[in-house]
């Protein structure tokens, strides 16, 4: 049983609201609709096995065999047009009696139209004559007329991606299939060559780089915009000009679909950087050209054709954007619930404080042009963030910051113009602008004098004969002048931005003639009040619909007839009558509008009256009361209100306003004025010139728009079109809501069902005899006697057993039904792959033989080259080895010599100390043994003390020599450190500072050591002097006392001197060791920092730690030096005291002798 999923009930066309009903459809005007009413050949019916064309943009072939349907020999069920306006004929026209038992047994499902106009899914229980017994899902059983039933498809076809795969192509089946896919976020479906896209009104995970790569590699064949773009770019590479045409009503998603197509083209043709600029044009154009309407939050109020050019390699080389008919009236007037252009709200919300102050900006609700509607924001849209995106996009397309500020100044000037008010100055209702904040801000922003602006808004110069007359304006005239100036400034700003974008996209880009164009034009519009803008938009849609019909219906069937194949025409809704209503001369809508616009006394009422007089007999026109009239468009009837038609069609800006812009000091207003003057054409207002003064006359809006439209149609005729039909599922712009009536109306308007029928029953694939024979001739197994292309083509068809009903042979071409050429292509590809495999095997064999011979030569050359290289490297290594051995020898000799000298010096020192100790130890015993000879003892004592003093002096000299060596080594380290500092400039200050600190500390330590040495030397000299005095005393005073004093003084003096020598030695040795350690550590850290040595440490941290250690040691060492100095001073004082005693004692002895 077919699952209903809550969508099995559909309203018929009779139950739709008036705006949904398709006026002129077979249900309403089957006799006068202008359709080509013919039947479909039975071989195009839905019961045959069908294969999807492999040549389609979506790839793989798939066949569907309808086994659930009865096999009937005499008559088959086939589609035609039902009385309800559906595409297929009802089952009532068939002989139900022949298959009644089968239908009742299988309980086939069908769509039944209930009394309330809804379609409901039911099962057929039995068929008797013209009546059928059916049961509904709730269990209700009814007997109905078989004519009211439409066949339903089996469950296996639920959600198929191509409507051509449906066995029964009627309206409820199509609606059900589209909703089935829509509910599962499968918004894209195929309708033959047309892609149907239903707007989901939400983000769905069907886009991004992964999907782009998948469609590029053909790993996905489901319907998608990417697939259409991929087909277009591949055809473009083969030499075709492609264009993707987007159709649909307002809010159907045309703009978003165009952006998605551009993303795919940019991804495939990227690499030059221009693709980023192309994508960045979208935020700019949407900000300045889109607005919120009652039916679309982001409605395009202009049309655009984006032409993307490619290089010979398929890379994007440039682009050009052409725009059509910007809705200028939206700048100065806006209905409730809608907004003006996004750019105004984005500027007010997102401008930075400096720009706001410069432009004197306020919030959006303080400008009268925006106050006409209380809608200042859109749900889910952050205008401030959108302003940031627009600025970023302007930067991307190389619009300078100065020009950006100038453009924003023009926007602010338009807003402030709306706030300019007028005051009546006389009884004739003449006015002058009030000089207030608004007027002054406008003058400042556009760069003119306030008085000049005031004069341009309140007066008008007219030339009568040779005289210039200044006419004061009434309130209505002044308001129109103000609004006209605001509209012109905004329109010129929009055109200027497009020009800047085109310059950016075309700079330095080489054109090759290969291009893909994307047409995104206004959708069909029908509001409560439809004015001049809707009139032009719907006219453009009529012209595009005719292009659609021409390519998918007219040209195809004309080609069948011209080539003489057996073909029955397919009926479709032709809108040529409606186009004639607009374009026919001399009594077409456009001609009458231009004619009335040239009359000085023409009004909107006279225009409406003239339309009713001349067009009342036209079947597509109906006059209404007052200023209104109705046009029967292809998408339904629309009532237009002619209020403002003439004024909007004239759309002229008085020369006074243009002169005001040209006198401005800012560049943009001057450029606008120049552009307006250059577009001036021959006067079209006729007598109005005399009364209106020196106006800038130009072509009327409809004339200019019609010319643009015809140029566009000529371009489209020279390209290969790809049609995308965008469908709007609901008017509330809410996700997940599917209004069947709205969808059905759009499907019928765009002729989707007819497209599927003509594609399924026709011959979509065609190929000339020559091309077919050339492409598939090599597949023939037997030689053809006659080698003309037609004979070869027929032989190919016979060889592959192509059924006669699957193709037809025309005068110049072969025509194939869907899927047939795919079989030939599959065979051709397999054959070519086999040929390529054989060729590749043979070429591989030859290549391998060649490679073998080549390898031998290469190996020989490589061996010789490696040998020569190795010999050179060996010679270099040998030379380096010898040099290294010599260097090592000298280094080892130097190290050994230094070690020997150190050991020798230490040995000599130890020997000297030991000998001195032995001498000192023995000196006392000798003195005791020779106490009788005072003179000899005195001389020996002097000799012992002299040797001891010499030893101390020698050690001091050695310490000084070692200090000098360390100073020299320190200087060398400083030089190396300076080199590293030059290489690593970031550490120059640190290392230089440390070097200065260390030098100061070295000098301090040296000075301290020198002071200690001098002190010690001074003490030794005093002791030597005392020793000589004592010797003299001993000579003059021999005896036991002298001997005893000599021994005591010798021992007492030896002990302090030995202690002092030991302290000095330890301090000098520690100084040498510490200097060496700190120097080595600093050198190591420099090598680590420079990268010469690898170590797992932080050089900066270790340098700071080394500095702290050095500071600590310096303080400790300085303290010990001070302590040593104090001790030496004490020892010196003690010796001094002893000498004084001796002197005193010596003096007493001398005095006693004298006495």
Automatic annotation (TrEMBL):
SMART domains recorded: IQ, MYSc
Myosin N-terminal SH3-like domain mapped to chain residues: 105-154
Annotated region described as Disordered, given as residue ranges: 25-85, 1016-1055, 1131-1155
Residues bound to ATP: 248-255
InterPro entries: IQ_motif_EF-hand-BS (IPR000048), Kinesin_motor_dom_sf (IPR036961), MYO1-3_N_SH3 (IPR057535), Myosin_head_motor_dom-like (IPR001609), MYSc_Myo8 (IPR036022), P-loop_NTPase (IPR027417), SH3_Myosin (IPR004009)
Start-end of Polar residues biased regions: 30-46, 1026-1036
Coiled-coil parts of chain: 949-997
Recorded GO CC terms: cytoplasm; membrane; myosin complex
Biological process annotations from GO: actin filament organization; actin filament-based movement
Region (Actin-binding): 709-731
GO molecular function, one term: actin filament binding
Domain Myosin motor stretches: 158-829
Basic and acidic residues: bias regions: 1016-1025, 1131-1140
Keyword terms: Actin-binding, ATP-binding, Calmodulin-binding, Coiled coil, Motor protein, Myosin, Nucleotide-binding, Repeat
Family in the record: Belongs to the TRAFAC class myosin-kinesin ATPase superfamily. Myosin family. Plant myosin class VIII subfamily.
Record's protein name: Myosin motor domain-containing protein
């Amino acid at each position: 049983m077919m699952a209903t999923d809550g969508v099995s009930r559909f309203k018929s066309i009779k139950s739709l609201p008036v705006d949904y009903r398709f006026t002129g459809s077979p249900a309403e005007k089957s006799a006068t609709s202008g359709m080509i009413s013919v039947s479909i050949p039975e071989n195009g019916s839905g019961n045959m096995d069908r294969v999807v064309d492999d040549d389609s943009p979506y790839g793989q072939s798939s066949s569907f065999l309808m086994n659930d349907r009865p096999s009937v020999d005499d008559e088959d069920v086939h589609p035609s047009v039902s009385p309800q306006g559906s595409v297929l004929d009802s089952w009532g026209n068939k002989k139900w009696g022949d298959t009644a038992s089968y239908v009742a047994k299988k309980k086939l499902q069908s769509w039944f139209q209930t009394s309330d106009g809804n379609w409901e899914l039911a099962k057929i229980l039995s068929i008797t004559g013209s009546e059928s017994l059916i049961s509904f899902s709730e269990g209700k059983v009814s007997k109905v007329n078989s004519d009211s039933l439409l066949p339903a498809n089996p469950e296996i076809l639920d959600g198929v991606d191509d409507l051509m795969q449906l066995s029964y192509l009627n309206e409820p089946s199509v609606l059900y299939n589209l909703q089935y896919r829509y509910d599962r976020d499968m918004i894209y479906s195929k309708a033959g060559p047309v892609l149907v896209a239903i707007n989901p009104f939400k983000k769905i995970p069907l886009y991004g780089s992964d999907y782009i790569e998948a469609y590029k590699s053909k790993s996905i064949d489901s319907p998608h915009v990417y697939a259409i773009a991929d087909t277009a770019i591949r055809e473009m590479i083969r030499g075709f000009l492609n264009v993707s045409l987007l159709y649909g009503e307002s809010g159907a998603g045309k703009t978003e679909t165009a952006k998605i197509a551009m993303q795919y083209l940019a991804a495939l043709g990227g690499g030059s950087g221009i693709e980023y600029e192309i994508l960045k044009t979208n935020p700019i154009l949407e900000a300045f050209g889109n607005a919120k309407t009652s039916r679309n939050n982001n409605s395009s109020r202009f049309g655009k054709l984006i032409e993307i050019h490619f290089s010979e390699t398929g890379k994007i080389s440039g682009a050009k954007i052409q725009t059509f008919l910007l809705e200028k009236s939206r700048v100065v007037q806006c209905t409730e619930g809608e907004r003006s252009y996004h750019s105004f709200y984005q500027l007010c919300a997102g401008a930075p404080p400096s720009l706001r102050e410069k432009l004197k900006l306020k919030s959006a609700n303080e400008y009268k042009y925006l106050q006409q509607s209380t809608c200042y924001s859109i749900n889910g849209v952050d205008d401030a963030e959108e302003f940031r995106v627009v600025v970023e996009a302007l930067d991307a397309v190389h619009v300078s910051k100065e020009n950006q500020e100038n453009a924003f100044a023009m926007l602010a000037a338009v807003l402030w113009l709306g706030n300019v008010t007028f005051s009546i100055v006389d009884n004739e209702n003449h006015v002058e602008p009030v000089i207030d904040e608004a007027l002054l801000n406008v003058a400042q922003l556009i760069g003119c004098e306030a008085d000049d602006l005031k004069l341009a808004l309140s007066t008008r110069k007219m030339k009568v004969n040779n005289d210039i007359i200044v006419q004061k304006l009434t309130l209505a005239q002044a308001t129109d002048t103000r609004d006209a100036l605001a509209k012109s400034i905004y329109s010129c700003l929009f055109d200027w931005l497009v020009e800047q974008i085109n310059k950016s996209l075309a700079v330095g880009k080489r054109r090759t003639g290969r291009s893909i164009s994307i047409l995104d034009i206004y959708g069909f519009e029908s509001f409560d009040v439809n004015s001049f803008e809707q009139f032009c938009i719907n006219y453009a849609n009529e012209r595009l619909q005719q292009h659609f019909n021409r390519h998918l219906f007219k040209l195809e069937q004309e080609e069948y007839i011209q080539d003489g194949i057996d073909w029955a025409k397919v009926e479709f809704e032709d809108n040529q009558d409606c186009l004639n209503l607009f374009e026919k001369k001399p009594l077409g809508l456009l001609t009458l509008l231009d004619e009335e616009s040239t009359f000085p006394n023409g009004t909107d009422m006279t225009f409406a009256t003239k339309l009713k007089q001349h067009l009342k007999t036209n079947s597509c026109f109906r006059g209404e009361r007052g200023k209104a009239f109705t046009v029967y468009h292809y998408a339904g009837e629309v009532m237009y209100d002619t209020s403002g038609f003439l004024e909007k069609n004239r759309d002229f800006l008085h020369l006074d306003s243009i002169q005001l812009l040209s006198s401005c000091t800012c560049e943009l207003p001057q450029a606008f004025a120049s552009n307006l003057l250059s577009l001036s054409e021959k006067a079209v207002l006729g007598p109005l010139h005399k009364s209106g003064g020196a106006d800038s006359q130009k072509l009327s809006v409809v004339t200019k728009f019609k010319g643009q439209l015809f140029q566009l149609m000529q371009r489209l005729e020279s390209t290969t079109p790809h049609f995308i039909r965008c469908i709007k599922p609901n008017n509330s712009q809410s996700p997940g809501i599917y209004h069947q009536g709205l969808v059905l109306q759009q499907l019928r308007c765009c002729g989707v069902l007819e497209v599927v029928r003509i594609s399924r029953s026709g011959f979509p694939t065609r190929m000339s005899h020559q091309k077919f024979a050339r492409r598939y001739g090599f597949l023939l197994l037997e030689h053809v006697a006659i080698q003309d292309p037609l004979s070869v083509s027929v032989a190919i068809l016979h060889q592959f057993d192509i059924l006669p009903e699957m193709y037809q042979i025309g005068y110049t071409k072969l025509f194939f039904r869907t899927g047939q050429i795919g079989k030939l292509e599959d065979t051709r590809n397999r054959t070519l792959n086999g040929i390529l495999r054989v060729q590749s095997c043979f070429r591989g064999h030859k290549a391998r033989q060649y490679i073998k011979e080549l390898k031998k030569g290469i190996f020989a050359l490589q061996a010789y080259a490696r040998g020569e290289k190795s010999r050179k490297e060996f010679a270099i290594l040998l030379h380096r080895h010898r040099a290294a051995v010599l260097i090592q020898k000298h280094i080892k000799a130097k190290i050994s010599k230094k070690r020997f000298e150190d050991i020798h010096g230490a040995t000599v020192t130890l020997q000297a100390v030991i000998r001195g100790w032995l001498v000192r130890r023995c000196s006392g015993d000798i003195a005791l043994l020779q106490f009788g000879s005072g003179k000899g003892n005195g001389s020996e004592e002097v000799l012992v003390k002299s040797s001891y003093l010499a030893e101390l002096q020698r050690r001091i000299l050695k310490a000084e020599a070692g200090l000098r060596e360390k100073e020299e080594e320190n200087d060398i380290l400083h030089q190396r450190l300076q080199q590293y500092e030059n290489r690593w400039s970031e550490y120059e200050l640190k290392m230089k500072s440390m070097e200065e600190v260390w030098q100061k500390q070295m000098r301090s330590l040296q000075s301290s050591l020198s002071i200690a040495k001098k002190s010690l030397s001074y003490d030794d000299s005093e002791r030597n002097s005392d020793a000589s005095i004592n010797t003299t005393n001993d000579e003059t005073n021999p005896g036991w006392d002298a001997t005893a004093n000599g021994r005591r003084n010798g021992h007492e003096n030896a002990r302090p001197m030995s202690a002092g020598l030991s302290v000095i030695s330890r301090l000098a040795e520690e100084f040498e060791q510490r200097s060496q350690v700190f120097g080595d550590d600093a050198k190591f850290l420099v090598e680590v920092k420079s990268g010469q040595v690898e170590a797992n440490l932080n050089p900066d941290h270790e340098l700071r730690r080394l500095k702290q250690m050095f500071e600590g040691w310096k303080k400790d060492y300085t303290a010990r030096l001070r302590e040593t100095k104090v001790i030496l001073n004490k020892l010196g004082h003690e010796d001094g005291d002893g000498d004084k005693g001796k002197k005193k004692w010596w003096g007493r002895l001398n005095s006693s002798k004298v006495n």
